[in-house]
Amino acid sequence: MGLIRRYESKMHGDYKRAILRYGFFGGLIFCVVLLLRWLLVLPPSQPMSYVENVLQLVLLFVFVYLYKRRLPDRRINFKESYVVALGTAVVSAVIYGMFMYVYASYIDTQMQERCFELQRMMNQGQYTEEQLKDLTKPSYIAFSAVLLNSVMAVLWAMIVAIFLRNERAIVVQKQKKKL
Fold it and tell me: What is the pTM of this model?
């Protein structure tokens, strides 16, 4: 009685290099978008917003599609596309988090105050003012950016993998034991 099927799949390309390359480019694009928002007088008041979520989804589609185009026969299964998308998103989240720390500390020092006001509005007597100030330090803002970006990456990578796969994994037949 096997409720869980075992699948056999093969990774066709050099996914480790692709994860680092596309993750680096994704992180740079996140940084440029953050700077453009600041220059256009639309500075963020939280580490992750809808802009970053939509941008992450679009970038993952583009990067996995570019990876798929470089593969022989352009065949990619769910596992490979999910690994590439998730790895790319995590690498770009780390780069974005490092830049977010620099951004909140030196470029847009008012971001801490905006985050503090947002936290204070959402606080329902759970935290004191000192605790809220600790939650809006640049290190916490950067950590929140990495964490929220990585959590959303799990969902976005699965969506990307479902839509861009074009090869199904082979079901491995269970071997019967001989007595």
Answer: 0.83
Is pLDDT of 124 > 80? no
Tell me if residue 134 falls in helix, strand or coil. helix
Mean pLDDT (whole number) for 82-108: 94
Domain count, the chain: 1
Q: What is the span of the domain harbouring residue 139?
A: 13-168
Q: How far apart are CA 87 and CA 142, in angstroms?
A: 19
Q: 92 in a domain, yes or no?
A: yes
Cα angle value 20/79/89 (rounded, 5°) = 35
Question: What are the residues whose beta carbons fall under 8 Å from the beta carbon of 44, sequence distance 6 or more?
Answer: 34, 37, 51, 111, 114
For residue 41, is it within any domain? yes
8, β-bridge pairs: 170
4 within some domain: no
Rounded Cα distance, 25 and 125, in Å: 42
Residue 178 lies in a domain: no
